[in-house]
Amino acid sequence: MHGFTNKVALITGGSRGLGRNTAITLARNGADLILTYRTQQQEGETVVADIQSLGRKAVLLPLDVGDVSQFTRFHDDVAQSLQSTWQRDNFDFLINNAGIDRMSPFAETTEEAFDSLVNVHLKGVYFLTQKLLPLIADGGRIVNTSSGLARFAIPGYSAYGAMKGAIEVLTRYLAKELGPRRITANTVAPGAIETDFTRSAFDHPGVKDFLASQTALGRVGVPDDISGVIAFLCSEEGRWVNAQRLEASGGMFV
């Protein structure tokens, strides 16, 4: 993979986990980065330093994707950063990666937990993408993060899985409506990936071994299994992939 020179990617939740890994992968292939963090500023600054050590530029901005009231200010911060760092008025790739984990049986899921998932995983993605549309370059790419849980069901994830299912539908609409601007929109759906995001679930005895046993390739995933898929969708080689759900799960529950 190559050819990201003079490209700028914006990754929400870029301070850790899949977001961090994707940022490093894109930087290694020539892209510059705008990353967001919610609380982990120090971790975000470490990622920026790692990107700069690769000879690329990076900017770190605060954002809570679950708080729509922040989006106008964030839009202005992105526009200012683009001007001051790159002397341009748009960026190329929007990767909606930020997320939260809430696991509870359907019968016990609270309205508060449900609303927090809606705000981050659906409402936030919907309106942040809308707000940033004027800053996305024609011919750019949108990559949304779904989950294997939108295809198969694991008890405890009814709300989370429902939000990801909605994101997959939304992505098809984005592809259709943004086609005149030659902007593609796709979702990447990871299976079970071992990151700090999933650590609490994996800490339960037997969970990791069970998930590995239900995966055709015999193990759970790691961030490096996903970041290259996102990079492909942003690449010139991926230009004709549009409105698609690309599951990267090693073959879970097939």
Protein described:
- There is one protein chain.
- By secondary structure, the chain is an alpha/beta fold.
- It has one domain (8-248): NAD(P)-binding Rossmann-like Domain (Rossmann fold), CATH 3.40.50.720.
- Helix content is 42%, strand content 17%.
- The chain is built from 8 helices and 7 strands, in the order E-H-E-H-E-H-E-H-E-H-E-H-H-H-E.
- The protein has helices spanning 17-28, 41-53, 71-86, 111-132, 158-178, 199-202, 207-213, 224-234; strands spanning 8-11, 32-37, 58-62, 91-96, 136-145, 184-190, 245-248.
- Strands 3-2-1-4-5-6-7 form a 7-stranded parallel beta sheet, sandwiched between helices.
- Helix 4 (111-132) links the parallel strand 4 (91-96) and strand 5 (136-145).
- Helix 4 (111-132) runs parallel beside helix 5.
- The longest helix is centred in the middle third of the chain and has 22 residues, at 111-132.
- It is globular, with a radius of gyration of 17 Å.
- The chain starts with 7 loop residues before the first strand and ends in a 6-residue tail after the last strand.
- The mean pLDDT is 96.
Write a short abstract of this structure.
By secondary structure, the protein is of the alpha/beta class. It has one domain (about 10-250): NAD(P)-binding Rossmann-like Domain (Rossmann fold, 3-Layer(aba) Sandwich), CATH 3.40.50.720. About 40% of the residues lie in helices and about 15% in strands.
Q: Secondary-structure map with pairings?
A:
Layout: E1 8-11, H1 17-28, E2 32-37, H2 41-53, E3 58-62, H3 71-86, E4 91-96, H4 111-132, E5 136-145, H5 158-178, E6 184-190, H6 199-202, H7 207-213, H8 224-234, E7 245-248
Parallel strand pairs: 1-2, 1-4, 2-3, 4-5, 5-6, 6-7
Helix pairs in contact: 1-2, 1-8, 4-5
